[in-house]
């Protein structure tokens, strides 16, 4: 599977028009609060799919981790390197450009084009707003591709779920049952923390939601 031109354009427009409500001004608070419980301190090399320009990458680097990441939009990655005060070396890969500096490597281009050889060996995956950015028809392919290119590395996953009848995605609502469908054959799936965050998210309230559950999972390899 690859992402259609139309779907890619939709994301590029979001970045061009700065409609990036998903981008947090700081490190995700749950990563700081629950990081130890999801294995952050054991991780040496993390893969961050659909990374945007998240400050979480800077946090991983500050902990001494190596980071390999992927993002469709080049502007986002230029901003990411500027934010980190890193001057990247650029080289081509089959679906775009690789940005590399210090312990950070980002594949700019379609996630579905990545191979295990590109990503290399990783011992942790961080999915915040990646699986929930994709429509239902793509999520099973996403999960399979993620496991294939990371050799089923342990995963820290942050999702949202709400009544999908109340709002169109993205972000899409992804319930625990679906996470289990994608991952429970290969991982022990544990919910580390979850909470209704609607009161902190006035935009989603305006979009018509009556609840918005955020969940933090650890997918670990001990089955
Ligand atoms: C909801 S945002 C989340 C970004 C980031 N994880 C964060 O927490 O800020 C989803 C991101 O995925 C990117 N994206 C969407 N489809 C993609 C694909 N097929 N390959 C790579 N990146 C993609 C979008 O450009 C967008 O930056």
UniProtKB/TrEMBL annotation:
The keyword S-adenosyl-L-methionine applies. Its EC number is 2.1.1.67. Signal peptide: none annotated. It comes from the Bacteria. Coiled coil: none annotated. The keyword Oxidoreductase does not apply. InterPro entries: SAM-dependent_MTases_sf (IPR029063), Thiopur_S-MeTfrase_Se/Te_detox (IPR022474), Thiopurine_S-MeTrfase (IPR025835), TPMT (IPR008854). S-adenosyl-L-methionine binds at residues 15, 50, 71, 128. Keywords: Cytoplasm, Methyltransferase, S-adenosyl-L-methionine, Transferase. It is an enzyme of class 2 (transferase). It is found in: Cytoplasm. GO terms for cellular component: cytoplasm. It catalyses: S-adenosyl-L-methionine + a thiopurine = S-adenosyl-L-homocysteine + a thiopurine S-methylether. GO terms for molecular function: thiopurine S-methyltransferase activity. One of its GO terms (biological process) is response to metal ion. Belongs to the class I-like SAM-binding methyltransferase superfamily. TPMT family. This is Thiopurine S-methyltransferase. It comes from Bermanella marisrubri. The lineage of its organism: Bacteria, Pseudomonadati, Pseudomonadota, Gammaproteobacteria, Oceanospirillales.
């Amino acid at each position: 599977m690859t992402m259609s031109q139309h779907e890619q354009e939709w994301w590029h427009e979001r970045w061009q028009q700065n409609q990036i409500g998903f981008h947090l001004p700081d490190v995700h608070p749950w990563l700081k609060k629950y990081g130890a419980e999801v294995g952050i301190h054991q991780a040496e090399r993390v893969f961050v799919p659909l990374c945007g320009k998240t400050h979480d990458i800077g946090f991983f680097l500050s902990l001494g981790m190596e980071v390999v990441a992927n993002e469709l939009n080049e502007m986002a990655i230029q901003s990411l390197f500027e934010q980190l005060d890193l001057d990247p070396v650029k080289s081509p890969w089959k679906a775009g450009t690789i940005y590399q500096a210090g312990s950070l490597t980002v594949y700019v281009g379609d996630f579905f084009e990545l191979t295990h050889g590109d990503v290399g060996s990783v011992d942790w995956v961080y999915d915040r707003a990646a699986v929930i950015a994709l429509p239902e028809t793509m999520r099973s392919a996403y999960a399979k591709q993620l496991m294939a290119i990371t050799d089923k590395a342990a995963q820290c996953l942050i999702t949202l779920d709400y009544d999908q009848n109340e709002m169109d995605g993205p972000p899409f609502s992804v319930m625990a049952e679906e996470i289990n469908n994608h991952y429970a054959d290969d991982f022990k799936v544990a919910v580390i923390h979850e909470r209704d965050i609607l009161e902190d998210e006035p935009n989603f309230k305006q979009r018509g939601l009556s609840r918005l559950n955020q969940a933090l999972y650890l997918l670990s390899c001990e089955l």
